């Protein structure tokens, strides 16, 4: 897989244990990720299924079996490609209606390339509050700003940064789809980069927010 090797080599010189060494280096990696196609990672057959997908003939919670009965949605698959102390690469293969829950990437820069299919992306950034109110402290909530709430169709590449761009996000597959992620630096609980999951809460905004 020459394109994957080229991407990996670029990541090795563009990323450090603290993340991208520069914005220019990050853009070089993004340009190579933009060139990756399903056939480059052995997913051409799955991409063809996504291109022929017809939501009108399938229920939202599954797919048609041979006898016409609905089958439960298959689980999300993760294809691990590479991991070092500076970056990791992997692909999430999502069946229709599957969801990657609302989660974060603390201290990390993430490039995501939608290889095939269509999904709905919803992402947020934290809103910093200098003097949190008692209400926020008691409810253990934190305000966040909506960054993205839309459908994405392949091919599309996005970048999120540690403090902007939608670091907290969730994905819901509309058709079969695959998401190629490059994380720098990778998750590490020992270094304070553990993944946290969230849920949205409806609370009354404190005065002045």
TrEMBL record:
Compositional bias (Polar residues) spans? 51-60
Its required cofactor(s), as named, are: Fe(2+)
Give the Enzyme Commission number: 1.13.11.20
Q: Which Pfam families match?
A: PCO_ADO (PF07847)
Family to which the UniProt record says this protein belongs = Belongs to the cysteine dioxygenase family.
* PANTHER family referenced in this protein's UniProt entry, alphabetically: 2-AMINOETHANETHIOL DIOXYGENASE, CYSTEINE DIOXYGENASE
According to UniProt, the reaction catalysed is: L-cysteine + O2 = 3-sulfino-L-alanine + H(+)
What does the UniProt keyword field contain?
A: Iron, Metal-binding, Oxidoreductase
Q: Name one GO biological process term.
A: detection of hypoxia
Provide a Gene Ontology MF annotation, just one. metal ion binding
> What is the scientific name of the source organism?
Oryza meyeriana var. granulata
Q: What are the boundaries of the region Disordered?
A: 51-70
Top-level taxon of origin: Eukaryota
Q: What is the lineage of its organism?
A: Eukaryota, Viridiplantae, Streptophyta, Embryophyta, Tracheophyta
Protein name, UniProt field: cysteine dioxygenase
């Amino acid at each position: 897989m020459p394109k994957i090797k080229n991407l990996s080599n670029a990541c090795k010189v563009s990323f450090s244990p603290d993340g991208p060494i520069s914005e220019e280096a990050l853009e070089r990696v993004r340009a190579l990720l933009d060139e990756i196609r399903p056939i480059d990672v052995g997913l051409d057959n799955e991409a063809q299924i996504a291109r022929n997908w017809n939501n009108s003939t399938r229920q939202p919670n599954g797919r048609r079996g041979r006898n016409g009965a609905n089958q439960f949605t298959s689980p999300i698959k993760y294809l691990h490609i590479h991991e070092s102390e500076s970056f990791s690469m992997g692909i999430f293969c999502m069946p229709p209606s599957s969801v990657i829950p609302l989660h974060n990437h603390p201290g990390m820069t993430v490039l995501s390339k939608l290889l095939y299919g269509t999904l709905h992306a919803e992402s947020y950034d934290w809103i910093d509050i200098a003097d949190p109110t008692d209400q926020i402290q008691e409810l253990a909530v934190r305000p966040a700003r909506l960054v993205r709430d839309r459908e994405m169709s392949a091919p599309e590449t996005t970048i999120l940064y540690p403090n902007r761009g939608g670091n907290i996000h969730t994905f819901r597959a509309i058709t079969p789809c695959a998401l190629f992620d490059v994380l720098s630096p990778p998750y590490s609980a020992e270094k304070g980069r553990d993944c946290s999951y969230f849920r949205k809460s409806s609370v009354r905004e404190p005065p002045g927010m």
